[in-house]
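Q: Is it fine to ask for two folds in a single conversation?
A: Yes, each is treated on its own. Send the first.
Q: Here.
A: Result:
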Amino acid sequence: MLRIAIVDDEILIREGLARMISKESAEFLVIGTYSDGKHLLDKLSTLQLDVVITDIRMPQINGLELIKQLKATHPQIYSILMSGFVEFNYAREAIRSSAVDYLLKPINKEQLFELLYRLDKERQLARDKEERHRSGLLLTVLHIEEPSSPLLLSSLTLPQPYFSVFVLKGSARETVCSCADSLRQEKALSFDSLEIQKGLYVWIVYSAEPLSDNDLKDIGDIMRISAHGKILHVGTSGCYNEVSKLRQAYLDAKQACNMGIYNPEPVHYANIQNIQQPEMNLLDHFNTIREPLIHNLQILNVTGVLEWIHDLFSVLKAQQAGPDQILRVCRWVEETAQKELQEFEARNKSAPDLRLDDRIASSMSFCDIEEMFTAHFTNILTEIRTHRLEMSGTAIETIKRWISANYNQHADLNTLANMVFLTPSYLSKLFKQETGLTLTDYITEIRLRKAKHLLKNAPDLKVHEIGAEVGYGDPAYFNKLFKRVVGVTPNEYKRISIV
């Protein structure tokens, strides 16, 4: 829309011209008529002007002087000079003063409208180019976690002195677009709209004065109506006039927007100034309740793990934790599972359509986040448990065969567990369940059984040689262990057996 001001000391001319222009096109908006250049300059700071159409001769500030001052202070405003004088000197002076064109009175309608349509097209092209350039700079400023460089900030010029940041997250892009259209029509707001990531939008709203509480309330009411019952979360920052505050304003607005996951209403609209989020030391809390999780993971008690996760999410909900904090806690749960279940990492990476950070960031409800994470975690644990149960019968036989063939070697629990793709703790529990013996007792039994065989059937071998043969390099330990288990020393057993 081309915003136009008309300056002429003859009321019939300026009012008639205003009516004629307004009738021509809805894209032409005459926002004011003035009897003198001084009157326009006095109001200029409150106007958003694209074009000034001015007469040359006026009582206080004439047209040529007005154009010169506009060029000096507002070079983006186009100027059109009109006069009943046809002398070349006026036309030449108008060109030197950067008037866009020179129109003779009486004004030729076709000539005027041809000029205005051309200016509207040029203005739109220039504005689009400026907005693209500004949007690129804004995205850079918002994404950089480190403080933006002075050079970057100095190259960023905002359309108005003040700005407020709005962060929007919607279940549908159409909802956000509908709100944007309504705000432009009903509030005539000027703002840049940026899509930070899929489903997350940022508006930089510009204003000549700081937005008041009533302004913000009106914006919230318009959004609620424009959403048409669709889910929309909106957070707003405070109002600033320093470009260096842009990133902080964005983070504040995002935090206010994120609190929408706790709002049961379809439209959540909150200002950061009304958000009170308590400080939480999540890691300390997590560590104090971590042991039950480890225990349930080790024995693959899926029900116990789910109860623990639900209790943890109850704490997060009570504290109104934001998505970033929820993600951090979910990562800690996953890392704990990876340490206790060697299959977890591979199965977690192969889970279809799951990027935990993206899923949590796009969720519109805390309950949805808990259900998503719980279902994902349950699926992995159930797969691991099912696989282990399928393998359990053959896994113990595999270990027993290896011990029988390698009884004289050191049997490291981790090595044995890796052979059958089980965790050491689970292998120990499973082995005891299947055989009635611990792995250590079973190995001891196999070794002493072989030792007794050699004591009976290899009279030429000395006792310490037999101990070394079955895996006990320390004769004293072999003697002590043999007597404790068998009831007599190896020498006594040898003499009894030979007799």
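Q: Second one now.
A: Result:
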Amino acid sequence: MTGTVAIAQAVRSGRLSAVYHVEQCLIRLAERASPLCAVTRTLADRARQEAQRIDALVAAGGDPGPLAGVPYGVKDLFDVTGLPTTAGSRLYADAPPAASDAAAIRKLRDAGAVLIATLNMDEFAYGFATINALHGTTRNPHDLTRLAGGSSGGSAAVVAAGLLPFSLGSDTNGSIRVPASLTGLYGLKPTHRDLPMGGVFPFADSFDDIGPFTGSLADMALLWEILSGRSATEEDRPLRIARLGGRFADNVDPEQVAAMDAIAPNAPVITLPDIARARSAAFLITAFEGGRLHQDALTRNAMLFDPQVRDRLIAGALLPHDLYEKAQAFRIRFINGVADLIAPYDVLIAPATPCSAPLVDDPRILIDGAMSAARADLGIHSQPISFTGFPSLAVPLYRPGRLPLGLQLIGKPGTEPALFQFAAQLEQKGITGVSLATGTYSGDIA
């Protein structure tokens, strides 16, 4: 499959039709998606109708937009007209259908993109593994015996497998950056509240954001422009780079360290204060807001929840409000302190995940010398960044033939163009870059 920019150019020029791309995409999904356990619904009728509309516009001499005819999918927590918004839970499988599309889907449709699928996730986005009690565990297309990460694992897997050119996920504490790192993609957690959240099933409002998964940096920049309404380019200038140390230097793969050494050998190392406390506060705020959101449903239908998610939500619902307020007050102090500390720099470099993808049959990772649940701790490096609300771009290390692994490039609020500029420099040097999984996949799930 070609990328977003190439497909749109072919459709806008009339060289290939939107209908052609949709039909080819539907064939790929039918033939290759099943082993991944990544797609929850294929929207064939809707996609064909949207593609026909685009082709008619091209035939009449019109311009359907910069995403003309590009098929894509969304995490199963975006409102899609006529469908229940399940958020990955059997609790809402028969909910009333959405009356309209989510705001981001409307923006993409106006730009010519064609929605073709909804995609698997951790129930209510509570986890880093996409282990879903209703739809199953999403597999990593680079090795089907391994996790794709979460909670936006389905959104990552279909792009990494070459089944879709891009997808949308959501990121509360790392739910885009973690699967992007484990599947070898670009994944963006934007500046908090910067991209449209209307019609997206919430988890924790303090941290929730949406963002794209892409197989190229050019595709990522284009999608950010469309969703944000701003230019992704800025004046080419030297960027001031720093590395994050302290807890960000613990639980790191040696190849991540080597890559950061190559990227910025003389960059200053910044240690953020109270980083462990920040992650604990992020856990607390997430649990409190998630628990309160689902409190009534837990009272009525607790047994319909995934047991692991249910127990965490119940624990969150029982947290006292004054403890939540203290965590929020600490968050304000932490953000202000971090902003002062990083003021001299444009881009901070840190690992995106502590390791490559863990096994599905043993979903644990090594944290501080002990085995820990991947579902909780794959976000050890992403969660503190969500706590700040700063933008973070996951970039894949270029390592064909090996399990993917990524870094995150972190900026100050509203500085996504600087992250794209620096990521382009790394891509040109061959340090980062996407290697999509083969169509046959690997591993054995029999």
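Q: Anything structural to flag on that second result?
A: Two points. The radius of gyration is 20 Å. The longest strand covers residues 114-119.
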